[in-house]
């Protein structure tokens, strides 16, 4: 049987499952597609084992693999192959998550070095802090983490693990101003970029030594159609330089599909709407990061007149806030998922993820307004710290919810989804550095941050309730 025939069989089997809900007699174990059911039922998954008996019948339910505590059906269903990443040990899985989180830190960590050096660079090159801000406000994509999380972990653990990965790239632009700010106050700013380069090299070395390929072609009749080399060293080298991927390319999507995949998914209404919302939520927070150094270092009455040490210390605020957001998001996302599964009779609906946004938005408003008032009215440092911290907690909580929702809606498109969310938050964020400081200097920081918060809340009211009301219809019509 050819690979195309296999794909057609998989598609046909999954489509037949979609049509069968409570008709037990029509769902025999031999007809049920254990491999790709979760993809073809994007956004609606039967999670409770008892509900699985009702929807799929006893014959299928008995064959479904469950979580260790027996309370949840595993999606995707692990194969019997011990090398299936879903079957790896917890240590092996979490090591890969740790590595990809370290890698996610690199781009914005390097970009944030310019924040720590902003005054030193302006003095060195006899220019303004605004010019330096514009030149150093850049990044590159952090996409791979969503792939790896979904390769390694079942559905009910993915939001928790995404929380860790997103924490990496959200905290990264604050780590470098915090760490490098103390360094540039003592030695040359050139050392800060040297240390950033060293960190990137260390991460590359760790990946080369301990990173593993998590892609597993579970849809193929034989997920490993090409025999592995007997030498583990040879296999690692071939995997690192792309030989393994080149050999497997004949069994995967064509270049044509890969090139147009993002264009094929970005116009879907439920995805485009949530991308626009997240672009503003995340974007304005990046604007805070890239411009706060200017507000903090500018002498009164324009700013707080902090020393280089003071500015560096201030960036400890968002670092602590992101950790708090990770802890809150970890438990709240799990609670929302479990509560909604019980409320929906053992079935998970993707739009349930968006309830977390209702927690994030009040925090976002309070944080931005307080931060703007602090800069404009020169409130105490405590007020500034609280405003900045609260806003970053909100961003952390909201971003994880958006990633999880989009992944649930398009489970076959993790790479494209991750790339598009990254593009949205990057376009929304790194453009803010160009206008935020001049706007605040002209009309006051309270107006600047207040308007930004108002834009975010307006989009929230337009997008999130609409998706919760109509998301099921949009998924049914427009999902892939």
How would you describe what is shown here?
The protein is mainly alpha-helical and about 475 residues long. It folds into 2 domains: about 5-65, no CATH class; about 85-210 and about 255-480, Up-down Bundle (Growth Hormone, Chain: A). The chain has 21 helices and 2 strands. A two-stranded antiparallel ribbon has the order 1-2. Helix 14 (about 270-295) runs antiparallel to helix 18. The longest helix has about 35 residues, at about 445-480.
Task: Please write out the topology.
Blueprint: H1 3-18, H2 37-40, E1 44-46, H3 49-56, H4 58-63, H5 90-116, H6 118-124, H7 129-136, H8 144-152, H9 155-184, H10 190-210, H11 232-241, H12 243-248, H13 255-266, H14 269-297, H15 308-314, H16 316-343, E2 347-349, H17 355-377, H18 381-409, H19 414-430, H20 436-443, H21 445-478
Antiparallel strand pairs: 1-2
Helix pairs in contact: 5-6, 5-8, 5-9, 5-10, 6-7, 8-9, 9-10, 9-15, 9-16, 9-18, 13-19, 14-18, 14-19, 14-21, 16-18, 17-18, 17-21, 20-21
Question: How do you describe this structure in short?
Answer:
By secondary structure, the protein is an all-alpha fold.
């Amino acid at each position: 049987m050819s690979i195309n025939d296999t794909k057609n069989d998989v598609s046909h089997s999954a489509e037949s499952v979609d049509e069968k809900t409570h008709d037990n007699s029509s769902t025999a174990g031999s007809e049920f597609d254990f491999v790709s059911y979760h993809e073809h039922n994007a956004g609606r998954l039967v999670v409770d084992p008892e509900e699985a008996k009702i929807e799929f019948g006893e014959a299928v339910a008995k064959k479904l693999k469950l979580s260790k505590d027996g309370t949840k059906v595993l999606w995707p269903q692990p194969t019997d192959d011990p090398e299936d990443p879903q079957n790896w040990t917890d240590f092996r899985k979490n090591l890969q998550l740790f590595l990809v989180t370290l890698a996610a830190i690199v781009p914005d960590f390097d970009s944030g070095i310019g924040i720590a050096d902003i005054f030193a660079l302006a003095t060195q090159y006899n220019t303004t802090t605004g010019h330096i801000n514009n030149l150093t406000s850049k990044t590159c994509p952090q996409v791979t983490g969503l792939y790896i999380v979904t390769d390694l972990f079942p559905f009910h653990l993915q939001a928790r693990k995404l929380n860790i990965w997103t924490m990496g790239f959200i905290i990264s632009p604050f780590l470098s101003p915090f760490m490098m700010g103390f360094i540039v106050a003592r030695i040359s700013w050139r050392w800060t970029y040297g240390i950033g380069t060293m960190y990137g090299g260390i991460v590359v070395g760790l990946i080369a030594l301990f990173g593993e390929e998590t892609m597993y072609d579970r849809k193929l009749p034989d997920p490993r159609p090409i025999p592995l080399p007997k030498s583990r060293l040879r296999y690692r080298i071939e995997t690192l330089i792309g030989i393994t991927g080149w050999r497997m390319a004949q069994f995967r999507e064509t270049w044509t599909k890969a090139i147009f995949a993002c264009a094929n998914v970005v116009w879907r209404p439920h995805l485009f709407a949530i991308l626009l919302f997240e672009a503003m939520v995340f974007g304005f927070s990046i604007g805070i990061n890239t411009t706060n150094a200017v507000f903090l270092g500018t002498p009164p009455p324009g700013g707080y007149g902090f020393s280089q040490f003071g500015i560096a210390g201030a960036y400890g605020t968002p670092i602590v806030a992101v950790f708090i957001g990770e802890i809150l998001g970890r438990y709240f996302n799990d609670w929302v998922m479990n509560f909604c599964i019980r409320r929906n009779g053992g079935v998970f609906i993707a739009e349930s993820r968006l309830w977390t946004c209702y927690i994030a938005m009040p925090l976002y408003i309070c944080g931005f307004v307080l931060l703007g008032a602090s800069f404009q009215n020169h409130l105490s440092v405590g007020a500034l710290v609280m405003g900045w911290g609260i806003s970053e907690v909100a961003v952390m909580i909201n971003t994880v919810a958006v990633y999880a929702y989009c992944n649930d809606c398009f489970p076959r498109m993790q790479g494209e989804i991750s790339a598009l969310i990254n593009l949205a938050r990057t376009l929304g964020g790194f453009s803010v550095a160009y206008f935020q400081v001049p706007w605040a200097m002209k009309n006051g920081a309270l107006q600047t941050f207040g308007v930004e918060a108002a834009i975010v809340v307006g989009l929230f009211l337009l997008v999130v309730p609409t998706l919760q009301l109509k998301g099921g219809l949009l998924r049914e019509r427009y999902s892939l």
